From TrEMBL:
InterPro entries: 6-PGluconate_DH-like_C_sf, 6PGD_dom2, Ketopantoate_reductase, KPA_reductase, KPR_N, NAD(P)-bd_dom_sf
Pfam families: ApbA (PF02558), ApbA_C (PF08546)
GO cellular component, one term: mitochondrion
Coiled-coil ranges from the UniProt annotation: none
Name of protein: 2-dehydropantoate 2-reductase
Record-annotated Ketopantoate reductase C-terminal domain positions: 145-277
Organism: Melampsora larici-populina (strain 98AG31 / pathotype 3-4-7)
Amino acid sequence: QKQQPIESLIVTTKAHQLSKSLKPLLHRISRLSTIVLLHNGLGVIEEVLGSCFPHPESRPSFILANTSHGVLKLDSATTSMPQTLALSSESNPLMNPSLSITPTLDHHLPHLKPETHSLHHTLAALLQPEIVEALGTKWLTLPEFQTSALVKLTVNAALNPITALLETRNEALVGERSFERLAKGICHEASTVFALQAKEEKGFPLDHPLAKQNLLRHVRQVMKATGPNISSMCADVRKLANEQTEIDYINGYISKLGEKYGVLTPINDTLVQLLKLK
């Protein structure tokens, strides 16, 4: 069984561990396979394609997934809000989610043929009524998913490194003026580079989810809603001394976009370096 071809594979490792975890399985993965990627941060799919699947003609199908479920191993496990799923494709410009059409298996997937059979089968399995009821899964169009993922990335960029550096719970940041100033700067830098990525040269309109004031609102909401929580990065710093965190795929992703578009991102740059010194 260990040598049988893999039809569907769900990968839930840390972002920096993903490529390494796939390599022992590459001989069992083909263009007939489907891989679901479920991790924090962005920029991983590009890394996986480059290191594991450099030849487009032999690549498997990918489903990109975003989750807000959380698990902390103490006396018991805790879970939170629903996860969302989206189909991976070539990079598209970011769009306002309100302009998107609700996707359906019949109209928004490649035609059913041997190389897409596992993609159809995997999505159908993830969208079964009992799975939707238990996990809150839903399928988003790519523009909707991109927006959702960038909002989550910004929230993580504000909360994760600072709670990790201070080794504290999210609630410790509530009402702190210093954190508020840092969060505003992080959201400003993020919104600026996301707008350039989306070819919005003048920035996002005020009602767009990626406008800086809306990103900051999400940070505040999540900080208060998850007050007792320990961020994943804080947990990594506490338990994995001298081990790599996901900082390169969170704040580091914002920094890389800044480099690409010629925009300074000093707050995110500094947080990346501070985490690496921790």
